[in-house]
Amino acid sequence: MINSASQAQTPLLTALYECAKSSHAPFYTPGHKRGVGISPSLIDVFGKSVFTADLPELTELDNLFAPEGVIDEAQQLAAEAFGAARTWFLVNGSTCGIEAAIMATCNAGDKIILPRNVHSSVIAGLILSGAIPIFINPEYDAVLDIAHSITPESVAVALHQHPDAKAVLMVYPTYYGVCGDVAKIANIVHQYNIPLILDEAHGAHFAFHPDLPISGLAAGADICVQSTHKTLGAMTQASMLHVQGNIVNYDRISKVLQLVQSTSPSYILMASLDAARAQMALHGNSLITQTLQFAHTARLNINKIPGLSTPLSPPYQALLGGFINLDATRLTINVSNLGITGFEADEILETQLAVRSELASLQNLTFIISIGNTQQDIDKLIQAFNTLAGMAPVSKNNTKLTSAKILYSLTASNSILHISPREAYFAASETLPLDQTYSRISAETICPYPPGIPVLMPGEIITKEALEYLQKVKVLGGFLTGCSDTTLKTLKVIA
Ligand SMILES: Cc1ncc(COP(=O)(O)O)c(C=O)c1O
Questions:
Q1: Which of 309, 407, 413, 446 is the most exposed, fewest CB within 10 Å of its CB?
Q2: In this predicted model, what pLDDT tens digit does every residue of 387-435 receive, in sequence order?
Q3: Predicted local distance difference test score (pLDDT) of residue 147
Q4: Does residue 205 belong to any structural domain of this protein?
Q5: 343 and 318: one domain?
């Protein structure tokens, strides 16, 4: 039960403010000494106050890696508000939290079960830990060209085949706000007495409104890593790692977090976590009620515009096991019936209509609607799409759109891991023309969009099917990420 009186406190922010005001001669880092030595051009842009609060680990400000004072208090309040047994503040994004979660649960050579459409921070976690990935395919929606979550069934099968796995990791929600069945998956995973790790980078707001999907912690996950900065009011990079239960070793999490974060963590970022937590604990329900209303208004009006649709909308049809709930604040607009790609629509919105999306893909544009949006933003969005729909089709490659849907054919079971991602990452590599890479070992991740599922990971054998698939993606207008040569003329392989 949340205690509103204590949740109104912001111990870290308050201590930082007091320190910023205190009069003393500073002979410590940072070198700008509370803004006095900062470049005037920075003061012109940002004002002075932010720099007076840019302070190091002074006595009153506690220590992120051995918290006993205000950071400890702030983290305990966050744990209470988010429903965790313990919470760690992160200053290097969910990226460092995900890396730490994998390193805290897997030794080199240990198996971890995870979907193939993971964020690059998960691959970094595999490289840092030396863990061996056991990939399962996410459910794929061929109509939308969107990969959803993994299913309880696929996790059960993977665990049956690999009962020695040390952890299961899933993405919850996906970038599109689609949620898998965490509660069921947690139950299955716990039968093996191993932890379920959630990449909940896009779900920090879930704990604060009953009309949002259940939060990962409430559904029974053991480690939840959230980018507080993505959907709540914290500053960029400011994130949290939450833990509950007794499967995970809390001391090991503290230890590995020191490996992946700066020894000079920014107090401005940490104070923003303290303030964002208090804001949500006190006002989260009303702020998200308004956000959901904005999202509803946007959907209602966009769907009235000929040629546009919002395929991921409540009441959604959960046709696939990897899609049992939806974060309605995540708005995906399909533009393919306008005869243009999502990329082209995005460019027009940005350059001509002063609206900026979060993510563009071949058919869709995705928008994050959050507590920071206003009615004017929503009006502008609707107006911009009205204008866009009134423009003549400008597509350079709309003939390719429908054929893109048939792209997804390669499955995780096709991939053959020859050496661990860690070995592959550190091994000597060479760059070869594409047609000479068959049966070599990939030194890089190659992820085509659509559908955003890596075809090759470091350490995997390059098959004929993988090469043909990648070439098809290029021909059909998709693009590649993760690789050093996105034109696909060459690939990096283990020497
Ligand atoms: C699914 C997912 N996981 C993890 C991350 C990493 O989060 P952060 O930017 O907080 O490091 C991202 C960032 O975009 C993401 O989309």
A1: 413
A2: 999 996 655 554 444 444 444 455 555 678 889 999 999 999 999 999 9
A3: 85
A4: yes
A5: yes
201 lines ligand 1 (CB under 6 A): yes
Task: Determine the pLDDT at residue 317.
Answer: 62
Q: Which parts of the chain have pLDDT scores under 70?
A: 1, 316-319, 392-414, 450-451, 477
Count how many residues are written for the chain: 495
Tell me what pLDDT residue 471 has. 83
- Identify the CATH number of the domain in which residue 466 sits: 3.90.100.10
308 is in which domain, residue-wise? 284-391
Tokens at 156, concatenated: 């059960």
Task: Determine, yes or no, domain membership for 373.
Answer: yes
For residues 365 and 343, give the distance between their C-alpha atoms in angstroms, rounded to a whole number: 8
The reply to whether ligand 1 has any atom less than 6 angstroms from the CB of 151 is no
Residues 246 and 329 in one domain: no
173 and 216 fall within a common domain:
yes
| Predicted structure pTM score | 0.95
Q: Is the CB of 239 under 6 A from ligand 1?
A: yes
Report the separation in Å between the CA atom of 91 and the middle of ligand 1, taken as the mean of its atom positions. Answer: 13
From 94, 99, 178, 262, give the residue whose CB has the most ligand 1 atoms within 8 Å, as the site to mutate: 94
User: Cβ-count burial of 24 within 10 angstroms (0-12 exposed, 13-18 middle, 19+ buried)?
Assistant: exposed
Q: Which residue has the tokens 């009962």?
A: 163
Query: Could you report the per-residue pLDDT of 22-49, keeping only the tens digit for each?
Result: 999 999 999 999 999 999 999 999 999 9
Compute φ and ψ for 2, nearest 5 degrees: -80, 135
H, E, C per residue of 338-392: HCCCHHHHHHHHHHHCCCCCCEECCCEEEEECCCCCCHHHHHHHHHHHHHHHHCC
How many domains, in total, are found in the chain?
Answer: 3
The residue type of 48 is K
Do 273 and 288 fall within a single domain?
no
**φ/ψ (deg, to 5) at 423:** -60, -45
DSSP assignment of 409-453 equals ---GGG--B-S-HHHHHHS-EEEEEGGG-TTSBB-S-BEEETTT-
H-assigned helices in 53-199? 70-82, 93-105, 120-129, 152-161, 182-190
Report d(CA 90, CA 226) in Å as an integer. Answer: 9
Q: Please check whether residue 225 is in contact with residue 195, taking contact to mean a CB–CB distance below 8 angstroms.
A: no
